[in-house]
Design brief:
This protein is of the alpha/beta class. The protein has a domain of 231 residues: Type I PLP-dependent aspartate aminotransferase-like (Major domain) (Aspartate Aminotransferase, domain 2, 3-Layer(aba) Sandwich), CATH 3.40.640.10. It is built from 12 helices and 14 strands. The radius of gyration is 22 Å and the shape is globular. It binds pyridoxal-5'-phosphate.
Length: 409
């Protein structure tokens, strides 16, 4: 392989450094202001509050509370729902570990639903299969900037009075039927980690319209201390999940750029989509009818009947062009990770899995055919708000040539 390259390699912007991020004078000024004020704690400073106010306004929700990671955001959401030990929380086989371990820390059992092999998103159909009397909540993960099919999921959940948490870490400003992802279920959880559509390095935020949940979310971030109450106390077991003013200042500046960042991702993804659409053997991920995608990544399904070694083969060929792509997205589905396989939790107790129904922890691959197929087929390509047309032309050409080189004759 290794075709003689006739063109120059174009270095693609990376979200792991400044080449693919939008930090500039605005972030610098806000951080400088915070440092000069000497107030680095959000309970006293202005940026934490400003960020929460403007994030809530942007999404059109009543409440937003900043916290210090996306994992913390998911933990806050689960703690607000307040499961009893052994209650079940349905989640997905393909998500970040930070969306799963908080379930265990709140004493609930993560029950994995299969996903749609075409998008790797969890579906109503798969959720329905694992529902039980003990289901306390459903967490959906909108992967890669592509919303899950929420209408069917909300119908299923609403009929049974089960709250839905939306993990929107990868899908800022994506929409379903005109509503922002993260505002459709009871609680939305977002991450500001380095590689997300807006970032503070580490950080997160939770949103809701529900007064009672909002109160518990706020308290869980703040050691459950009743700030401002007549007789404040530490009301229940919780943590300090607060973000600092330094992070909040960066997040505040980043929020002002979010519309632009998302629009640029959509524009560039649209262009790439157009350039790839007639190439046999690959197909790009598409949003469902009525949804819009905000392209955390740009995903392809690779047909291993047409391309040698499928997604793995194509990724290898793309390396020739210095294009870093990720076949499989994650090494393995969540249920195959050691933490679940060995139930490594608290001492040697296996708690809370010692309370689980056997069906709830049935990790047989036969239950996850969509997951295994989806992972086998997917090739995750990088994209971010710093991509410009010449990057897309180079990427599209590289993919076209890599497909040509790996085509099964
Ligand atoms: C990034 C991410 C998280 C965790 O966020 P952190 O800020 O890294 O803790 C959770 N869920 C999904 C889907 C993510 O992509």
């Amino acid at each position: 392989m290794n075709p003689q390259l006739e063109k120059e390699i174009v270095k693609l912007p990376s979200d792991q450094d400044i080449s693919g991020r939008t930090f500039g004078a605005e972030e610098l000024a806000a951080v400088t202001e915070v440092l000069q004020s000497g107030v680095l704690i959000t309970t006293k400073g202005k940026y934490g509050k400003l960020l929460e106010k403007e994030f809530a306004e942007k999404l059109g929700v009543k409440y937003a509370y900043a916290c210090n990671s996306g994992s913390a955001a998911v933990h806050v959401a689960i703690a607000a729902i307040n499961p009893n030990p052994g209650d079940e929380i349905i989640t997905t086989s393909i998500t970040d570990m930070g969306a799963l371990t908080p379930i265990i820390f709140q004493g609930a059992i993560p029950v994995f639903a299969d996903v749609d092999p075409k998008t790797l998103n969890v579906t109503a159909e798969a959720i329905e299969k694992v529902l039980s009397e003990k289901t306390k909540a459903i967490i959906v993960t909108h992967l890669f900037g592509n919303p899950c099919e929420m209408e069917a999921i909300m119908k299923l959940a609403d009929e049974r009075g089960i709250p839905v948490i939306e993990d929107t870490a990868q899908s800022f400003l994506a929409t379903c039927d005109g509503k922002y992802a993260g505002t459709i279920g009871k609680i939305g959880a977002f991450s500001f980690q380095q590689g997300k559509q807006m970032t503070t390095g580490e950080g997160g935020i939770v949103v809701t319209n529900d007064d009672a949940l909002a109160r518990r979310m706020y308290l869980f971030i703040n050691k459950a201390w009743g700030y401002g109450d007549a007789n404040p106390d530490h009301y229940f077991a919780s943590l300090n999940y607060r973000m600092t003013e330094l992070q909040a200042a960066v997040a505040y500046a980043q929020l002002k750029k979010l519309d632009h960042s998302v629009a640029q991702r959509q524009k560039m993804a649209g262009l790439l989509d157009e350039k790839l659409k007639d190439i046999e053997g690959i197909e790009s991920y598409k949003p469902a009818q009525g949804s819009t995608m905000t392209y955390w990544k740009f995903c392809l399904r690779v047909d291993d009947q047409l391309i040698e070694d499928g997604a793995v083969g194509l990724a290898k060929a793309l390396k020739t062009y210095d294009v870093a792509s990720a076949p499989r997205y994650v090494v393995k589905p969540a249920y195959k990770c050691q933490v679940f396989q060995e139930q490594n939790t608290f001492g040697d107790s296996h708690y809370p899995f010692n309370l689980a129904r056997p069906e709830a922890v049935d990790y047989d691959d036969a239950n996850f055919q969509g997951t295994l197929k989806g992972l086998h087929d997917v090739l995750v390509l990088p994209i971010n708000e710093c991509y410009e047309e010449h990057h897309i032309y180079f990427l599209a050409d590289s993919i076209r040539e890599a497909v040509e080189a790996t085509k099964i004759k």
